[in-house]
Amino acid sequence: MELTQQLVREYFDYKDGSLYWKIKLNPKVKIKNIASYIIKGKYCNRNVVNISGVRYLQSRLIFLYHHGYLPDRVDHEDRNTLNDRIENLRAATHSQNMKNRGSARNSTSKYLGVNLNKALNKWAAGIRINKTRKHLGYFLIEREAALAYNREAVRYHKEFANLNIIQPE
Q1: Do 20 and 82 belong to one domain?
Q2: H or E segment at 40?
Q3: In CATH, what number is assigned to the domain containing residue 89?
Q4: Is 167 inside a domain boundary?
Q5: Which residue in 12, 130, 27 sits closest to 60, CA to CA?
Q6: 88 lies in the same domain as 124
Q7: Which of these three, 53, 77, 95, is where a domain ends?
């Protein structure tokens, strides 16, 4: 079955970031009930919808419902993969989607793009650009490394830049 905007609109109503059944596809479906359920993943949790035995990401169905096409990826602007409000979804390439992610769980820094170089006892800043890591320098102060990352993120990642939130000193 090929998904189209017409088919998605025939099956579902959209309200506040969720899809609700309009038709009874099988005995388990109840009209006006929420159509999605959460799948816990290794890296993130996602809302999925089962249509005739095939799982679809709810975010992709909502994007198709509103825009009439499916892009390569659907990015969540706020990085919350459970927030499928149409205002939070945007078309993206894989590369753009990867730019809008948080820091690694095992990071030595609270900031994205920053890690502690224990041998030098300095904070290293770096950014990934087109699959290549660019070193931005070493800094005595973690905050300064984070600011260096932010400058380059805006320069290279544009609207997909995921900036560090830095508290004033």
Answers
A1: yes
A2: strand 36-40
A3: 3.90.75.20
A4: no
A5: 12
A6: no
A7: 95
User: pLDDT per position in the chain (169 positions), as tens?
Assistant: 789 999 999 999 999 999 999 998 888 889 999 999 999 987 788 999 999 889 999 999 999 999 999 998 999 988 889 999 999 999 998 877 876 666 666 678 888 889 999 999 999 999 988 878 999 999 999 999 999 999 999 998 888 888 888 877 6
* Max CA distance (Å), the chain: 64
Residue 103, both tokens: 């820091």
Type of residue found at 22: K
In terms of Cβ atoms closer than 10 Å to its own Cβ (0-12, 13-18, 19+), residue 132 is exposed
My answer on whether 129 and 70 are in the same domain is no
